[in-house]
């Protein structure tokens, strides 16, 4: 169980890299109201992640007890839905998610050295499958959604028979159990974190910072780098979920999470400042970007060799950059001092 003292330690860790808001924001009576909106919305998102992770765990067990193409299809669907549930709340980079590198446990990425593939190959070469406890004690490259993606989509694992092998099934079950345990603990700890979050003014800044960092990461790393738009050559292996070609589906989930979970509290802050138009513009931009992503093909890597699909990705890249710029402008309007942009030394 997380104690109030640990909550405070997590708070100091999570806020250490932030430039604090000016006194005008911290004194704003709407700041606690915004944090109340955010806390409830984030709690719902963590609950959805927990539920989806439990369904994924059950789906893995069902497949291993009766391997079939139908059960594999359901397993793949449940895996994707759980990963999207994580993406929707990924912008929260403070509080209980910081404990034991939980974000990395959910998703080890970037993975420039293919550590996930090497870890999975190592486990698959053993004589016995690991337990969930062994996975929990191992590297984060052995945990989370990318590790499951390897088991479901790597070329060496194609076909129901390959995944149904005792070592592979046992490894998959251990990973899904660890994921469900992590998601459940995260939901419980966020509930306990509530009073500290709602009562600590600097978490208004932390929440804004988390959303901005999510947009920056989406723009530069999740889109820009694999597309070759940030100085290097295009490289599909730098994209998330490149094995399954579902990168854009994860981006769509992240935008939906910002729209449904972050925007309501932001609207509260801006309405109190007499700037509802800023929230409306930001919300409209989020909606356009999300709808655009929903209409696109699911993968980033395949689009690199397709002119029309690449052009669509470029449009999404521009939209995300505009959203990032809008949120920087909003931060200044809310009284943030220089440094709100996390690229200035986060």
UniProtKB/TrEMBL annotation:
Residues 1-27 form the signal peptide. The keyword Signal applies. InterPro entries: Imelysin-like, Imelysin-like_IPPA, Imelysin_sf. Residues 44-326 form the Imelysin-like domain. The keyword Signal applies. Keywords: Signal. This is Imelysin-like domain-containing protein. It comes from Halomonas halmophila.
């Amino acid at each position: 169980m997380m104690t109030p003292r640990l909550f405070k330690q997590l708070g100091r860790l999570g806020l250490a890299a932030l430039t604090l808001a000016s006194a005008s924001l911290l004194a704003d009576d709407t700041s606690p109201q915004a944090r109340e909106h955010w806390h409830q919305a984030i709690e719902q998102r963590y609950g959805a992640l927990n539920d989806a992770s439990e369904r994924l765990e059950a789906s893995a067990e069902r497949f291993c007890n009766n391997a079939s193409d139908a059960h594999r299809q359901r397993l793949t669907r449940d895996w994707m839905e759980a990963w999207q549930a994580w993406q929707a709340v990924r912008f929260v980079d403070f509080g209980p998610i910081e404990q034991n590198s939980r974000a990395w446990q959910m998703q080890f990425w970037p993975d420039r050295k293919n550590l996930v593939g090497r870890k999975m190959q190592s486990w698959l070469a053993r004589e016995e499958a690991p337990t969930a406890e062994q996975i929990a004690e191992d590297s984060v490259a052995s945990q989370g959604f990318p590790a499951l993606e390897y088991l479901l989509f790597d070329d060496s694992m194609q076909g129901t028979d390959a995944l149904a092998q005792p070592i592979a099934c046992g490894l998959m079950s251990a990973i899904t159990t660890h994921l469900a345990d992590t998601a459940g603990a995260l939901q419980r700890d966020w509930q306990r974190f509530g009073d500290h979050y709602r009562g600590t003014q600097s978490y208004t800044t932390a929440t804004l910072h988390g959303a901005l960092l999510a947009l920056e990461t989406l723009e530069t790393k999740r889109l820009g780098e694999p597309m070759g738009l940030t100085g290097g050559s295009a490289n599909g292996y730098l994209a998330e979920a490149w094995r399954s070609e579902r990168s854009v589906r994860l981006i769509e989930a992240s935008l939906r999470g910002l729209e449904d979970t972050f925007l309501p509290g932001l609207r509260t802050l801006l309405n109190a400042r007499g700037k509802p138009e800023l929230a409306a513009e930001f919300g409209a931009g989020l909606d356009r970007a999300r709808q655009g992503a929903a209409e696109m093909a699911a993968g980033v890597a395949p689009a690199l060799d397709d002119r029309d699909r690449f052009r669509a990705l470029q449009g999404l890249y521009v939209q995300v950059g505009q959203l990032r710029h809008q949120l920087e402008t909003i931060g200044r309007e809310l009284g943030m001092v220089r440094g709100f942009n996390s690229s200035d030394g986060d």
